[in-house]
Amino acid sequence: MSLPMSARLGRGQYVVVIAGATGQLGMTVSETFLDKAYKPFFSSVVCLTRNPDSDKSKSLAEKGATLRRVDVASHQTSEEDIVETLKAVQADILVSTLGINDAEAANKLARAAVKAGVKAYFPSEFGGDHWKNDFPDFEHEEWLHKKKHVTYAKQIGKGKMKVVSVYNGMLLEDTIGVVGFDTPGGTYTCVGPRNSPFALTSKTDIGRSLVFLSLLCMSSPDEVPDAVRLAGSLASVEDIANAVGKESGKKIEIKEIDLKEFKQKTRRDTQSGKAESPGQHIRIMIGEGKMNFEQNDNEVVNPRGKNWKWKTVEDYIREMKGEPCRDLLNGERQHRAS
How many helices (H) and strands (E) does the chain have? Predict the structure, then answer.
């Protein structure tokens, strides 16, 4: 592993706590910390879960996780309950992968972390860098909550707890089945130019990045940016269509939607309450080039690719035999997660 000497000397001394450990992203992040290549760097990997008796929780326990029953989003869970849990396990690092569209619940977690003496906190971001958004009067509420939370966490943690936001663009394993990608139907629809590249990062690579960022935060915190941008792969809709066609032999038709018109429609939908998810906003970000993380922090976590090989779009499409997100679309992945 390419780590500073101080991190190698600290091997096995740190406790990492993962909130939302059995969720969509949290499960992969938890499994990565528990991987035999990384677990020796932590004295304990603690997974917070609503249900320690679930199959996924038991799976993590079998891999060496310490389970703690905590439902952060529940009103029944007080701030002091979380403080008590974090203190009991002597948490050094807190990673949140909770899908909480509730700034106060996230703030409760951050306050508890500061009170418990947590030294590094990774809030639940793991998408586009919403600070670059250009939605002046129709920003999606999910990002408004996240901005408020990160600002608040940095205020209360100043001088006590390092707060690091990780932005990875799109999730590689989930994206080519949503936001305009219809592989079975042979049609991809993009907002704006078909050749506009955007970042796609695999869940495992996000987990690996969090492992190295955690260790760096403990040994060399000044070397870790407050905002870390990752790009496991950069590809456009056109690139993805070509890769699918090469692997499957299927011709993918690409349809372009006018960016300006789509942005106006998204503004109307958001202001009228029709834009329930940020999917429309994300498609605009891609079209405007705001998901193009060509300038990124990959070298911070994986200098010259020495720690691991980033999974590319081509790698993933080849792995899926030309049918990206097949397991997600036909329900296999949901069944495996139950």
Answer: 15, 14
